[in-house]
Design a protein that fits this description.
- The complex is a heterodimer of chains A (468) and B (457).
- Chain A has 468 residues and is an all-alpha fold.
- Chain A has 2 domains: 218 residues, Arp2/3 complex 21 kDa subunit ARPC3 (Orthogonal Bundle), CATH 1.10.1760; 216 residues, Hypothetical protein af1432 (Orthogonal Bundle).
- In chain A, helix 1 runs antiparallel to helix 6, helix 6 crosses helix 7 and helix 10 packs antiparallel against helix 11.
- The N terminus and C terminus of chain A are likely disordered.
- Chain B is mainly α.
- Chain B has 2 domains: 243 residues, Arp2/3 complex 21 kDa subunit ARPC3 (Orthogonal Bundle), CATH 1.10.1760; 180 residues, Hypothetical protein af1432, CATH 1.10.3210.10.
- Chain B is elongated, with a radius of gyration of 27 Å.
- The C terminus of chain B is likely disordered.
- The chains are: A mainly alpha (468), B mainly alpha (457).
- At the A-B interface, helix 8 and helix 9 of A face helix 7, helix 8 and helix 13 of B.
């Protein structure tokens, strides 16, 4: 796991650099102490070749790091190799393998970030090794009993060490993710737990899937008939999986771009709806970030924001929706159906099994009100998905501040006052508070991007350009 | 070759493969006598093969690759060809026949060609000095024998399927074989190295440690071996399935967005984009274009009129002659559409097709007035599909029958359309039975999804 902080933030906490230095020093100190202990037990020379072999493996796998679609942390399938190294060599050598491979993999990063990442790896391995040994864990490569000049490779009965294996893995993940989350939190001035929940919690299943793989590598390495080089065969599924993951991530990105470009184009020729979805999405994401939504929630919120009005694209509805003046009761009936139509369409465009139905549900509920007077289902309070409550506020705020056929453009102050007045009855109070907070701090990004054909901007806040 | 002849040849070929496989299977039982095979070993490999068989990942080139290839290869190294042939046949019947309920001919063909490949490759492997049941990864000569076996298996498996696909869809067998050997080498190489890994895990982590001292089976040992052996494959399967799902959803989203666009346009027919995409893809497949290109042509088909979204409805719904000029603003729609699509890097090829789909072979089209082969191939295909469906499905004018439409298109070949492609369209329509009705169309849709492709025959 490595950290790639967002580059557009310059308001890092003053504790950021001291923290990075402290972790770096501690990490190297711990690594030095572990290495000294290791050298008391075994000679260095017989360890050189296997260490370099695994550094090679770690580099080959690490070069294949998969960038997550929203930036931030990148996780790699490298955890499998890391875990195998720990079980084979113990924390000292595994730490060095991590440092040496990071020297190659992160050679373009700033030196402080490099040092920090080395230390972070060393500390994670040290924690994992400590937990593993507390539960009675043993390593594949140990000092040979008869002579210190060689090391012995032994088959470890891993079947009896399940608590140690699980504990070691958890120790590694917790230390690694907390060290990284703290760095990101200081860099972006957010709370550590918040960052951890947003950027790391969802990675747990991936680690659970990769740990048995690492264990299998260690078992194979400990079996003399299988031989060292055959361990390299494990790279085939690892690299294959990483190409597939990357292909999937790229395709997701393409999917996102395509839906943005095309839904923008569908919206663009109508001056009243132009940019509406884009602005709503932007507000919703700012609110979501302020309210601490997790990464998957942000993802679904973004899709829901993009697609929330797609149900209005019906030929027979066009004249009604575009008609100037206040709509009649019959026309309202039609307008009230658009979330239902929209959720039907959103369902067809869903992209991952774990979000199945979520985006559609949010789109369907984005005109529900807290007190149950909304449409189409008249849901109340907690029955409305939280993301839909965010989207509702963002949608209303955009509608109030933009020009519509039946409304004059209101001033921002009026709009905010109106939102506050309706908090608790129409809108979720928490969300309105977040909106007011963003507005008062001048962080609300209101700038209209009138190049309608372009895909959406990155959701990252870019200061208060259009405030005055 | 005519369609009917080809169909007959396909039947003969499939029957021959099944028969030869059955004979091979029967003969191979003789070799069982001189192996000290344990029943639980057979159970292990059969379980592994069935489990892997169920993990079919969709390939970009259509069809799918079953990971059971790696189990067969491991079986070859551990159990020898005779036993593995039985494993392959039984697992094929279990997973394809009983679980997936595929047509009997496909089950038989897949099992048959796997058996034949394994027996031939096994003979070659042992001939070049490969050992069965005693494989050492550190011995170079043994490795060389394994490499020979991988290459043989790769060539044979690709060849069986290429011949079948050629007989089903037309074209030349050797060309299809040549074009699929490359991509399959990567896949089969990866699966074979997984097979070597499986063999090593089985021989040195499974068999020796999980059978009890007297050599009798231990159920927990079998379960444990299957669990560890499936870890690498499961990881791969999970990743590729994710990728396949994402691609599939992408296509679905484009279809949905295309349909939405049609809902916004007053002069368009619901489903027109999808029909154009399907017909154009069928033409592209007949021309044996690479899968990526076929896909982009299909995408362009869904969205070819997206640029009309920016054109006022009053202009679009005006009745107009298809061969004469159109209002200036209507002429903008290919350019606008291309601009919209070009915003997505992945759709650039489709954007170029959309840009040129109103160009004419003689250079009198719009917007750029390019002519002949300067017009992208995809755009020339799309123009024909679009014109054909416009004539036969139009609601503004009385729709023409397919015969009349094809006659018109042939008349316009050389002036408006690429003459070779007009013939290609006629051939596609002929093969589908001339499309007299909507019901025929539904059947025609199935061309777009390859019925027989890759290893998943």
């Amino acid at each position: 796991m490595q950290v790639e902080p967002q580059k557009d933030k310059t308001n890092a906490s003053s504790a950021f650099i001291p923290y990075m230095l402290l972790v770096s020093l501690t990490g190297y100190a711990v690594l030095a102490r572990l290495s000294a202990q290791q050298l008391e037990q075994t000679r260095l020379l017989p360890l050189v070749a296997p260490t370099l072999f695994f550094v090679g493996l770690a580099i080959v796998v690490g070069l294949q790091s998969v960038r997550m679609p929203r930036g931030g942390a990148t996780t790699t399938v490298g955890f499998a190799v890391d875990y195998a190294c720990l079980l084979i060599f113990g924390p000292a050598i595994a730490g060095w393998i991590g440092v040496l491979s990071a020297l190659v993999l992160l050679r373009r990063s700033a030196w402080l970030r490099q040092l920090f990442n080395h230390a972070q790896l060393a500390l994670s391995f040290a924690a994992a090794g400590w937990v593993y040994q507390q539960f009675g864990g043993r390593y594949v490569v140990t000092a040979a009993p008869e002579t210190v000049a060689t090391v012995a490779t032994q088959q470890v009965p891993f079947g009896h060490l399940i608590p140690a294996l699980v504990g070691g893995g958890i120790g590694y993940f917790l230390v690694s993710s907390l060290l990284l989350a703290t760095a990101m939190a200081l860099w972006e001035r957010r709370s550590v737990l918040d960052v951890w929940a947003v950027s790391f919690r969802w990675a747990v299943p991936r680690y659970l899937a990769l740990a048995p793989f690492g264990l299998l590598m260690a078992m194979a390495y400990g079996t003399p008939q299988i031989g060292t080089w055959a361990v390299a065969l494990f790279l085939v599924p690892l690299i294959g999986a990483r190409y597939a993951f990357q292909g999937a991530m790229e395709m997701l990105q393409v999917h996102r771009e395509t839906v943005y470009a095309l839904s923008n184009a569908l919206e663009a020729y109508d001056p009243y709806t132009r940019n509406h979805s884009e602005l709503v999405t932007r507000y919703a994401l700012q609110l979501g970030r302020a309210l601490g939504l997790s990464e998957p929630q942000m993802e679904t919120l973004e899709w829901a924001g993009r697609l929330h009005d797609i149900g209005k694209c019906r030929q027979d509805w066009e004249p009604i929706i575009r008609k100037p003046g206040k709509p009649s009761e019959r026309e309202w009936q039609v307008i009230r159906q658009h979330p239902v139509e929209g959720s039907r369409l959103a369902e067809k465009m869903e992209f991952l099994p774990h979000t199945a139905g979520v985006v559609a549900k949010i789109v369907r509920a984005h005109h529900e009100r807290l007190d149950g007077s909304g449409y189409p289902d008249g849901l109340k309070g907690e029955e409305i998905p939280f993301e839909a409550r965010i989207l509702c506020v963002a949608d209303a705020f955009e509608a109030m501040t933009a020009r519509r056929a039946y409304q004059r453009k209101r001033s921002l102050e009026d709009a905010v006052a109106e939102m506050q007045r309706c908090a608790g009855s129409q809108f979720e109070a928490k969300v309105v508070t977040a909106l007011v907070g963003l507005w008062e701090r001048g962080e609300l990004d209101l700038e209209v991007n009138d190049v309608a054909m372009k895909p959406a901007l990155s959701p990252a806040a870019q200061g208060a350009g259009g405030m005055s | 070759m005519r369609v009917r002849q080809r169909k007959r040849a396909l039947g003969v070929y499939v029957a021959a493969v099944i028969l030869a496989g059955a004979v091979g299977l029967a003969l191979s039982t003789r070799s069982w006598a001189n192996t000290n095979l344990q029943l639980w070993e057979l159970v292990c490999f059969l379980g592994l093969a069935v489990a892997l068989d169920l993990m079919v990942v969709p390939l970009a080139s259509g069809g799918g690759a079953a990971a059971s290839f790696s189990a067969y290869f491991a079986g070859l190294l551990v159990l020898g060809p005779g036993v593995t042939a039985w494993v392959a046949a039984l697992s094929g019947v279990c997973s394809d026949g009983i679980i997936k309920r595929r047509p009997l001919a496909k089950v038989g063909f897949n099992a048959g060609h796997s058996v034949l490949s394994l027996l031939i490759v096994g003979a070659v492997y042992q001939h070049v000095g490969g050992k069965v049941g005693d494989f050492h990864a550190s011995d170079l000569s043994e490795l060389a024998a394994v490499a020979v076996a991988v290459l043989c298996l790769w060539f044979l498996e690709t060849a069986w399927v290429s011949v079948a696909v050629t007989l089903e869809r037309g074209g030349r067998a050797w060309r299809r074989l040549a074009s699929s050997l490359g991509p399959m080498l990567v896949l089969d190489g990866a699966l074979a190295s997984m097979g070597v890994l499986l063999a090593l895990l089985y021989l040195y982590l499974g068999r020796d440690h999980f059978a009890s001292a007297d050599g009798s089976p231990e159920a927990s040992g079998i379960v444990f071996f299957l669990a560890i052996a499936l870890i690498p494959s499961l990881l791969l399967y999970y990743a590729y399935r994710l990728q396949g799902l994402v691609r599939q959803t992408y296509r679905q989203s484009l279809q949905t967005l295309g349909a939405l666009m049609e809902a916004k346009l007053e002069d368009s027919q619901p489903g027109h984009g999808e029909r154009v995409a399907t017909l154009a893809a069928a033409m592209a497949q007949t021309l044996e274009l690479p899968p990526d290109q076929i896909e982009q042509i299909q995408f362009a088909g869904y969205l070819h009129d997206i640029g009309k979204v920016g054109v006022p409805a009053s202009l679009l719904s005006r009745r107009r002659d298809a061969f004469s000029g159109e209002p200036e603003q209507v002429r903008m729609h290919p350019t606008i559409g291309a601009q919209i699509l070009a915003a997505v890097g992945f759709l650039r090829p489709a954007a170029e097709i959309v840009r040129a789909h109103h160009e004419r072979w003689d250079g009198l089209g719009y917007p750029a007035r390019v002519h002949g082969t300067q017009i992208p191939l995809g755009a020339r295909i799309l123009a024909l599909a679009n014109a054909y469906l416009g004539m036969t499905q139009s609601h503004a004018q009385t729709p023409l029958s397919p015969d009349q439409a094809v006659l018109r298109l042939r008349q316009a070949a050389g002036s408006r359309f690429d003459p070779a492609l007009a013939e290609c369209l006629a051939r596609v329509l002929q093969e589908s039975g001339e499309l007299p009705s909507q019901a025929e169309w539904a059947r025609a849709q199935t061309w777009a999804a390859p019925a027989l492709g890759g290893r998943e025959g």
